[in-house]
Specification:
The protein has helices spanning 132-143, 189-201, and strands at 7-10, 13-16, 53-55, 57-62, 65-72, 77-80, 87-89, 96-97, 102-106, 109-115, 130-131, 157-159, 166-169, 172-175, 177-179, 185-186, 216-218, 222-227, 238-244, 248-254, 266-270, 276-284, 288-289, 295-303, 316-321, 325-333, 338-339, 345-347, 355-363, 366-370, 379-381. By secondary structure, it is mainly beta. A 6-stranded antiparallel β-sheet has the order 4-26-30-29-28-27, with no helix packed on it. The longest helix has 13 residues, at 189-201. It is found in: Cell envelope.
């Protein structure tokens, strides 16, 4: 999986999200910023150095994971409206809502259910908008039978159209070229046309744009658990709780394993007794602090044939998350990689100038690196 899956913009640096947050080490061109500790504990004859270091090692790297999960209806999810309005209809307790069906109505307008994650946090309207939220819309429109046309693949470069892909120069906002990453979708003209047709079919304004709150998002079909609002209420809080309509596997993934989990990625659910059911990762909830102090993410895995399991709720199963492997590569801890302002990367030997590297696969806090100046056994500074 490309390293861009795990790096996010933060100022000028691209830092790992979820479990790791590499500290940017400021370096001066041609100058070593950190003294090396000699065997006697002194750096180049000066005071004792306490700069932490790591060793470049060679080995195999894999993002595949095997984790325990619980079979059942999943964790109850609270449906919170994303826009102002008045609730005009809610389904009754026990109702099942499938993809594309109306989950509730605000001011008489339908709010349909889409499958996947994440939910919308911005308006989608301009051609060229790129992101995982766009991919969610594309996938759902396609699944509902609307022609969305071909999508640019990972590595393709498009003209960015949204606020995240624009820069201001001399008071003017201009588009910038954006590389499509794995898991991204692109709001093409064909997707906008499909969106307009879907809106017409659902009695919505066919303007080809989606605002926050225009759709509800869940990993799959849901069953209404507890209605929390009623018709006539202001749609400013929780509307209902829902659970999965089909049996799913809920995994509490430790922070260190989150980098292996990808929405839509393949999985194998291993049942007690040895039966295996193919499936997929349907949703990955953000990391959260739980009662035992651990930071975990809630991962929902949907089996292709959940009815074949015939298991009672609460049974523990094993989930194998599909991943990628790299054999015999050079690796360092992620906190040993320096993120430079131009988007490139380097490692910092304690007694020499920074060495440019290319980063590759990331797994369990370790990252693959390569470059002409990097070698096995090389010692580099690791941020604390």
């Amino acid at each position: 999986m490309p390293v861009d899956r795990f790096f996010a913009r933060r100022g000028h640096a691209r830092l790992p999200v979820y479990a790791f947050s590499a500290v940017v080490v400021v370096v001066a061109a041609g100058a070593a910023m950190y003294p090396h500790r000699d065997p006697g504990g002194r750096a180049n004859g000066g005071p004792a150095s306490t700069v932490p270091t790591a060793v470049v090692t060679r080995g195999d790297l894999s993002t595949g994971r095997s984790m325990s999960g619980t079979w059942g209806v999943g964790v109850p999810r609270t449906v919170v409206n994303g826009r102002a309005g008045v609730v005009t209809w809610l389904p009754p307790a026990g109702a099942t809502i499938d993809r594309g069906q109306v989950l509730y109505r605000l001011d008489g307008a339908a709010v349909p259910l889409f499958f996947g994650s994440p939910t919308l946090t911005r308006t989608l309207s301009d051609p060229g908008t790129v992101g995982r939220d766009v991919a969610l819309v594309v996938d759902n429109l396609r699944a509902l039978g609307y022609p969305v046309g071909p999508q640019p693949g990972p590595g393709a470069v498009v003209d960015g159209a949204d606020a995240l892909t624009q820069v201001s120069t001399d008071g003017e906002t201009r588009r910038v070229r954006v590389a499509v990453r794995e898991g991204d979708g692109v709001l093409t003209a064909a997707v906008i046309d499909a969106l307009r047709q879907w809106q017409r079919d659902n009695g919505l304004d066919a303007d080809g744009r989606l605002e926050v709150g225009d759709i509800a998002v869940a990993p799959g079909a849901v069953r209404v658990d507890v209605p929390l609002a009623r018709a006539g209420d202001a749609a400013s809080g929780a509307l209902m709780t829902v659970v999965s309509a089909a049996r799913v596997v809920t995994v509490r993934a430790p922070a260190i394993d989150v980098d292996a989990v990808r929405d839509g990625g393949g999985a194998i659910v291993r049942l007690p007794g040895g039966t295996e059911l193919p499936g997929r990762v349907a949703a990955v909830e953000p990391l959260g602090q739980h009662g035992d102090g651990r930071r975990t993410a809630t991962v929902t895995v949907v089996a292709d044939r959940p009815d074949a399991a015939q298991l009672p709720d609460g049974v523990e199963v094993t989930v194998d998350i599909a991943g990628r492997s790299r054999l015999g590569v050079l690796t360092v801890p992620v906190n040993a990689v320096i993120d430079l302002p131009d988007g490139s990367h380097a490692v910092q030997p304690p007694d020499a100038a920074p060495v440019a590297v290319t980063v590759g696969l990331v797994s369990r806090g370790v990252v693959e690196i390569s470059g002409a100046g990097v070698r096995e056994g090389m010692r580099v500074v690791a941020a604390p």
